[in-house]
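Reopening this ticket.

The earlier resolution said the output was attached, but the attachment link was broken on my side. Pasting everything inline this time so it's all in one place.
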Amino acid sequence: MTRIRSLLLGAVVLAVAVVFARPIAAQDVRVGPEAAWVEVRDLAPVDHVPTDEVGSTYLLLSELQVNMLDDEPQYYSDLAWYVIGPAGVQSGSTVSIDFDPAYEELTIHAIDVVRDGKRLPRLNEEDIQVLHREEDLESAMYDGRRTAHVVLTDVRPGDVVRKRYTLRGAHPALADHFALYTYESYYEPTRTVSSRLLWPADAPLRFQTHGGAEAPALATRDGVAEYRWGTENPTPYVDEEDVPYWIEPSPSTEFSNASDWSAIVRWWSELFGEAEEPGDALRGEVERIRRRNATRAERARAALEFVQDEVRYVGIELGVGAYKPTAPSVVLDRRFGDCKDKSVLLQALLRELGIEARLALVDSYGGRAAGERLPTPYAFDHMIVRVELDGSSAWVDPTATLERGELLDREPPPYGLALVLDPATTELTPIPASDPARRRVEFEKTIRAREVGAPAEILIESTYHGASADEIRYSLAFESVGDVSRSYHDYMKEDEPSARIATPLRFEDDYEANVLRSFEHYTVPDFWKEEDGEQGAWFRAGELGDCFVPVDAPGERVFPIDLGVPEQVSYLIRVELSDEWSFDDESVRIENPAFRFAYDAEFFERTNTLRLNYDYRVLVDHVEPQDAVEYADEIDDAYDLLHFGVAYSPTGVADEGGYWALWLAALGLVAAVVLLGLGVAYAVVRDRTIATFEEEADALRGRSLWLSMWMRPRATARVALDRGWQPWLLVGAMGLIALRGLSRLDLDRGEDVAYNLGVSLVPVVVGILFGPIALYAAGWMYALSGRLIGGVGTSRDVRTVLGWTWSITVVVGLLWIPRVLVAGFEAFSLDTPIVFASASRSVLIGCIDGIDVALSFWLFFAAIQGIAEAHRFSAWRALGAVLLVVGTIVFVVLVLFAVALLVSIALKVPGAG
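Inline output:
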């Protein structure tokens, strides 16, 4: 059983784990032909190589054949790969086969190079080197496995390299337990994946498939059950980032002869044997713990911390020792052991203290995936302990180090499911999920920048609670404070290259509360940067941004997104400024099933302090693929809010959201409204007599009616009526709808230029098609309503004056051009974080919108004046004609809605229809 931990190597491991190579030894490796039961496949010529999808080699064949009919199992493997270019020659010209000499016998049948259809043997006994490498040595693991290694001669691009070998034997601790797990595809294209199993027909065996793999084909003959499965040219699985560790991306097939999980519990119990009597050393340690701790909870915590911190982790996984734990007295005496050794020692200590504890098996890599596996001892690679205290269970990992805090308040190990070694166990037991409150981090950054252009100070206080404190404490145990300080300083310089350490990095660790704090203090000479005549500064909640998990191409996501262990992170940025600054308060909330994000910006004028407060809570450990787009969009929105900037101009403050900007925007809007009111008043006064417009019309004849429509709309309408209907006025109708559509378009696709340009054509097409229809329909409706209240205009007259009015609305529609220049693609989006983050952009957009509103009101007034002149009555009566049309339309819509509602109700009545 293995358990990866990054620990310092012990003297025992250094003594036994020697790396060496030596010639082949007879007891290690044999060379000989395949057994009679093996079916050797003919390798077809290579007619196609998917060079765009593979690297330096192309796997042609991956075949496994298993024989469980004899006393010892036999595993035959046949692998062949095609060599692509010089890189393939480099990587594909060696053959390596791993085996455990303690119980496995390796027989190599053939190592060949196939060139131009000819087989060139490369298996020479004198070329085989047996390496003793111990790949997990740095993780304090020693398992005694060896590697048969052959360096091939004369391998060229376009060759096929093939190796065939058999491993015979089973681990002595596994007794009669059998399990097999095979993958049906890999992350690169493969030509053939094939498997075959020979099994006694009268012996029980179960199998199941995962990820869409096809079920094995079964044929029974002469008391032998033969299973075959595999595929030709399997589809490579998607190699995505941030896939949860418990997801198996490849289709797979598994076999097991275990009946249920209780059979696995019985096997472990038999392997462990009877618990030994505690020796004097163990009883002495128990008495020491009992004397120093009064309560059961304190004693359980002391026993755990003793095993975690004073019994170092070393795994010597040789022979039966890979599964059978060492006696607690031996572990205590030598003060080292692997996960099962430390777990058994902890259980012995707790039971002597009168505290119930159960051993539990987990899968440290697959986690909750164990719940989808068939029962088998191979489903687990790690052991932990469940401790019973005051009616509650605490799941603890004896191989962890420097964990602190109350036992029942600690975060459970993140393994999802466990097989508790209890005679009553029949199923896997869920391990409680992590509570974000148990993994809490608080960052507080204070920026003292009270004088523009002068150096600033930055102070950062980081507070880690619970499991987060454990992780920082563990890392500090293996690094000097100086190394950690340099690491923190380098991180600060990513934002502020000129940052210098003002006072040394300092830590405070409260073991009882399990709270660890760090204190950083920097001076930043170049905090203020000059650009375009302004002094500016940018700052961000960088550590919080590091907690986010961004997603590329979320719409194409195949597997869930791994968010890690749920956590809670808060970040406060406090910026101390001079009295020349002012900011608007702002509050944003983002609610997503996967996370919650809150942002609050407050400015305190009395102290001239800007406070940016963030709170981020991860609620789940993964996001399903169908929710990836929503998650990605909202995590990007949250990320945009982590950055904040201010700018100072010698002529005034140009900050993010300053009050002066609001006043400027307000004055612009007031001026527009005043001008609009004056224009309306002027036009109303001129509306006293019809004759007045006749006189003005005489003065306008021969001039540009498009210009006069802005100042004298009714007189211009009279001249337009004299000139009559002009077909080119339809262009104004088309332009009105097209440009209005562009200015109101909501794309919400960020920088997806192709999508934006494509959708932008929609209002243009709609304007061309529906502009003329709208103009003719409006002319007919307003002519009818006007005649009902005493008017004399025809639909042609109304259409003429509306056509002239609509032609000048092109100016209003063209406002989208400056809007795009200021806001970019956010001009076409309801989500505008870039605009909101800039006061200058916000002001300009506000002014453009103010102009738009003012002009829209004026153009409505001009249309009313035109309709009035077409019907030869007052503008107020023209307004009534417009309201009559609008009211009629609303009434018809309400009637249709009521009818539809009644019909839907009737259809729901029992027996109706």
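Reporter confirms the inline version is readable. The chain has 23 helices and 39 strands. The two ends are 70 Å apart (CA to CA).
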